[in-house]
Design brief:
Elements lengths: L21 E9 L3 E3 L3 E11 L4 E4 L4 E4 L6 E4 L4 E5 L6 E5 L14 E4 L11 E2 L7 E2 L9 E9 L3 E4 L2 E3 L2 E4 L6 E8 L6 E4 L4 E8 L6 E4 L5 E8 L10 E6 L20 E8 L14 E7 L6 E3 L2 E3 L5 E4 L8 H6 L5 E2 L2 E3 L12 E4 L27 H5 L7 E3 L7 E3 L7 E4 L9 E4 L4 E4 L47 E2 L2 E2 L30 E5 L14 E2 L2 E8 L3 E8 L5 E10 L2 E8 L6 E9 L2 E9 L2
Parallel strand pairs: 1-3, 2-4, 3-5, 3-6, 4-7, 5-8, 6-9, 7-12, 8-12, 9-15, 12-16, 15-17, 16-18, 17-19, 18-20, 19-21, 20-22, 21-23, 22-24, 22-25, 23-26, 24-27, 25-28, 26-29, 28-30, 38-44
Antiparallel strand pairs: 10-11, 13-14, 31-32, 33-34, 35-36, 37-39, 39-42, 40-41, 40-43, 43-44
């Protein structure tokens, strides 16, 4: 029987001793297939290019540092690939080379992926901002720049000058053949994530305490994104104005937006939780350069649905820039832009205009903040079918909801700087609902977060809708890419507990992480089980890493004491696609063989549970 070998970077061999590793300095170009193993650390010096035809493979637990004096950066050029394959317990970490306590924004240059997917530059391509030699753009929407899973990127991103910036993670014309999920960008010196056109899709992204925008989309970006988090430091914002989402379509050098709607930025974000700097809506204790949870301008047609925007000076800033940049409000009128089934909470009320849950600026006022005198909360200037921003926000067909405070959302602890908890409490409007039906006799608690949404009002036993419900049928999130949740925002809540997908692999205190080991191990969720692997027989031809399963594979579980063991295969949304074993197991090493003939090609997760303890790890199937 064929078996799969899923490398854990020799962690089982106990290679975690301090300073017992070599540091490999990397500079200039990587022009052949290269494998970075976690028994070393790697130092990026200056711009390091992975060139066309080459693949850079990075083991789980690998630590890569950016050199501060030379502003080290990693650029994956068109035709090249990166395979950064971390796990929950062993994420790949890109971080500063400075000592603990001395790291800061912009210590190094971040990661840039360049692809051949379409962009709306008039020339069909453009050179990367910030100084790299690389170009991006093309005609292949399905272009593949590789894979990144369970990766942390810390203290990267440099703003050299306005519109000349390197971000924490930059997607330049990246195609949808690229697989991106479970990425955390922390303390970026510019945007946490920026998308220059392209079609790349992403899931499970975290932007933590960046300097400028959390998610910046430009140049006709049309990808799909789900399970998105933004967190801010109240006293760290950029002079250009910091936002959760900033979205443009057209600017100087792109095709004209006067008549074009085919090359707009029509990306979709669903199930985002974007928390701003404002704990109390009457407070002024935050940097004055903070602007809005979402700033939609220059003809953008970004759609934000099933999401939460909380604690910002302005919830949504709709910006009707000069006509050469296209019409943002026309995109609302023609249905290209969706803002539906969202919550806005805790918007600032300490300045005029008030309220600022949604604000409109016009006549080329692209630099205006939501607190300037000529911001408008009522008139669109010209938008057929919409009387004004407030009417648009509260349109009953769009199912948006506004709360005066962030605390009304009952999130666990959204403003903690080192241990944020964004999962909702049991009576949060995200996961709780009451309904007053006269035919039922009274108001009753009707929502069970463990069950699907059900609008059947025949009886309390059938009706199951939270106070704020998502919509995956009539919004832009009706594509098969999106996981159908029964909650808005990035996190739900089940009877089993808080469903926090950031647990284990994310770090919210990277300033003080020692990073003085090899094969980096994230703080364990529990220590009861260790999932290990069976080596592939020498006769089987497989990739060294990642190791895709063909017809069959073996999972080996080390059990510390007698008890029940349950082993399942999950897809990336957490759905069980195959049960491998469920029964008693004795202490020691247990092996479970399974075939993959009934599993489609793709990336999956092995889930192992025993006595309520849980371990997971990633593997792939290729037949």
């Amino acid at each position: 029987m064929k078996k799969i070998f899923l490398s854990l970077c020799l962690v089982v061999a106990g290679l975690t001793q301090s300073q017992a590793y070599s540091v490999v300095a990397v500079q200039d170009s990587i022009s052949t297939n290269t494998h970075w193993t976690c028994d070393k650390q790697y130092l990026l010096k200056g711009y390091v290019y992975v060139t066309a035809g080459a693949t850079l493979t990075i083991d789980a637990g690998c630590i890569i540092k950016g050199d501060k004096p030379t502003k080290g950066a990693l650029i994956v050029e068109r035709g090249a690939k990166i395979m950064a394959m971390g796990t929950v317990t062993h994420p790949v970490v890109f971080t500063s080379n400075q000592a603990p306590g001395s790291r800061s924004y912009g210590d190094w240059g971040g990661i840039i992926l360049c692809g051949k997917s379409p962009v709306n530059w008039s020339a069909g391509q453009a050179q990367v901002e910030g100084g790299p030699r690389s170009f991006y753009g093309g005609t292949d929407a399905n272009d593949n720049s590789g894979e990144m899973h369970f990766v942390r990127i810390e203290f990267g991103g440099i703003a050299f000058s306005p519109n000349n910036e390197v971000n924490g993670l930059t997607f330049c014309g990246v195609g949808n053949g690229t697989q991106i999920d479970h990425i955390q960008v922390s303390y970026s010196g510019d945007d946490s994530y920026e998308y220059f056109g392209g079609t790349v899709n992403t899931k499970y992204l975290v932007a933590a305490y960046g300097w400028d925008d959390d998610y910046d989309t430009d140049n006709g970006y049309s990808g799909k994104n789900q399970f998105i988090v933004g967190l801010r430091d109240p006293y760290a914002a950029d002079q250009s104005g910091s936002k959760g989402f900033e979205s443009d379509s057209y600017l100087s050098g792109t095709i004209s937006g006067l008549a074009d709607t085919d090359h707009v930025s029509k990306c979709v974000f669903s199930n985002a939780t974007i928390v701003g700097p404002i704990v109390n809506p009457g407070s002024t204790a935050y940097d004055a350069n903070y602007v809005a949870g979402a700033h939609i301008r220059r003809g953008s047609a970004i759609s934000i649905v099933n999401s939460v925007i909380a604690g910002w000076p302005c919830g949504v800033l709709v910006d009707e820039s000069s006509t050469s940049y296209g019409s943002t409000i026309a995109n609302i009128g023609n249905g290209i832009l969706n803002f539906r089934n969202n919550i806005i909470a805790g918007t600032s009320n300490n300045s005029t205009p008030n309220p600022k849950d949604i604000v409109y600026v016009f006549n080329g006022a692209r630099s205006l903040t939501p607190t300037t005198a000529n911001s408008d909360t009522s008139g669109w200037a010209s938008a057929t079918g919409f009387a004004g921003p407030i009417t648009f926000l509260y349109n009953s067909a769009f199912h948006n909801k506004v709360y005066g405070t962030v605390s009304a959302l009952q999130l666990g602890n959204p403003f903690s700087s080192t241990n944020p908890v964004l999962t909702p409490n049991s009576t949060s409007p995200i996961v709780y609902g009451t309904k007053n039906f006269v035919s039922w006799g009274s108001t009753v608690d009707v929502y069970d977060p463990n069950l699907p949404i059900n609008y059947d009002t025949t009886s309390p036993s059938t009706y199951n809708v939270p106070t704020v419900a998502p919509d995956f049928a009539t919004t832009k999130a009706n594509d098969a890419f999106f996981t159908r949740t029964n909650y808005v925002g990035a996190f739900g809540r089940t009877a089993a507990g808080n469903d926090n997908w950031m647990a284990g692999w994310c770090s919210f205190d990277p300033l003080n992480e020692p990073y003085d080991t090899i094969c980096y191990t994230a703080p364990p969720v529990d220590s009861h089980l260790v999932v290990t692997n069976v080596a592939t027989p020498a006769s089987q031809v497989v990739k060294v890493f990642p190791n895709p399963a063909g017809e069959s594979a073996t999972v080996t579980v080390e059990v510390n004491h007698s008890g029940m063991v349950k082993v399942d295969i999950l897809d990336l949304s957490g759905k069980v696609v195959k049960s491998i074993f469920n029964g008693p197991a004795a202490p020691g090493t247990q092996s479970y063989d399974f075939n993959t003939n009934d599993i489609a090609n793709g990336m999956y997760i092995i889930s192992v549970m025993s006595d309520g303890k849980h371990k997971i790890m990633r593997f792939s199937v290729t037949k």
